[in-house]
Design a protein that fits this description.
Layout: E1 5-10, E2 15-20, H1 27-40, E3 49-52, E4 58-59, H2 64-67, E5 72-79, E6 82-88, H3 94-112, H4 117-122, H5 124-134, E7 135-136, E8 139-140, H6 145-148, H7 162-165, E9 188-201, E10 207-221, E11 227-232, H8 235-243, H9 248-255, E12 262-266, H10 272-278, E13 281-283, E14 288-297, E15 305-314, E16 318-327, E17 334-343, E18 349-355, E19 359-363, E20 368-377, E21 381-389, H11 395-400, E22 421-428, E23 437-443, E24 451-465
Helix pairs in contact: 8-9
Length: 468
Amino acid sequence: MVASAIFITDLTGKPLISRNYRGDIPLTSAIDRFASYLNEVEDEMKKPVFHVDSGGEVLNVEDVGCTGAGGETFVYVQHSNLYLCGVTCKNSNIVLMLTYLYQLTSLFQDYFTTLNEESIRDNFVIIYELLDETMDHGLPQSLDSTILRQFITQEGNRMADDSKSKPPVALTNAVSWRAEGIKHKKNEIFLDVVEKLNLLVAANGTVLHSEINGAVKMKSFLSGMPELKLGLNDKLVFEAAGRGGSGGGASSSRAGKSVELEDIKFHQCVRLARFENDRTISFIPPDGEFDLMTYRLDTHVKPLIWVEAVVEPHRGSRIEYMIKTRSQFKSRSVANNVEIIIPVPPDVDSPSFKSSVGNVTYLPDKDCVVWTIKQFHGGREYLMRAHFGLPSISREEADGGSNSKGGGGGGGTDMSWKKPIGVKFEIPYFTVSGIQVRYLKIIERSGYQALPWVRYITANGDYQLRMA
């Protein structure tokens, strides 16, 4: 059992819609207790999981087992101007409740595009249908919008034929994420390996933090019920092959090209037991677009695009920037739509720019200069100069100012405007981790031929270079 009831409220705790699945709690009083918690507890003291005993006292969840006081446990998430809350009076799986609430939020967004108080009020009927289909007597059921849309439409379920009004067979199948009888004129599957690089670099060039967040995204247009097997250059797979007697030289050579993935999270279609046993990613894919897996690598990565700045304050209330950027990846790769975002003081005026490539734009509402380079080839270096009037720099500050280099630089006494330099980019046909798809096998009993397409993309995540 997971939840006794689910309800949605506004930010003050006023109920908008609710469903009592088990009838083992007084729902009205439970909602009142939740509203009291929201209004009486300070924001910094609120927790996403809390317990209220039969006397109305709020307890820490870890203390509930010691008191034996009864009452209800509340689990809630916030989205926009709403709270989605589950409540139970049993010893339930809290993590499963949180997962259900987050997936329910995604399901509502898929149906209504925007999930807020107004969309809840406009869609009471369909929300009740979704609540009834996604949970049965406190146990979560399918939350796959692709399957639910087959019998819960925006107009409601108005089918007259009893045979058509039955839910899809996929809901009761072991493969609940895929309907039977799918047919495509052309059988294709598209696989994108997308990596985002989070990087923080100190002004002296030291990499303070680097992290790769990756995702294997798929678009499946395959008929029938295909079985897919995906092979990656996973380090553990290569090590297992080496222990199997593939030869020391070959094993070490292949292991050198392997990648050690961390924090792997799979779509529900992946057979986890098979992966745990031999690291084989075997699955029957949903139809359409989905994320097969996500992963993380906490590894040292040098900046793919380096930015060096020199900021010179001058007499006569003006300031000049010299920005040099360098691509530190192989020349055969190209970074597209590069944006280098340089912070400037909030009161600069009279901007003028000169750059060896690209376009430069001053954005006064964001107090920054954006240098845009449409295509940045590997191994290249470019220069940009920017000149501003700056009334806030006095003659004394200009006399005492000094040039700065590194991730940025500057003069003057008030450095509050010196946020880190940000960089945005996208590099196709390239992964910073070196992950590779070794094979993608498609097996279907009808024996049709399918075309797999694989693409690699590296983009910026939170990519910042601090100013000196």
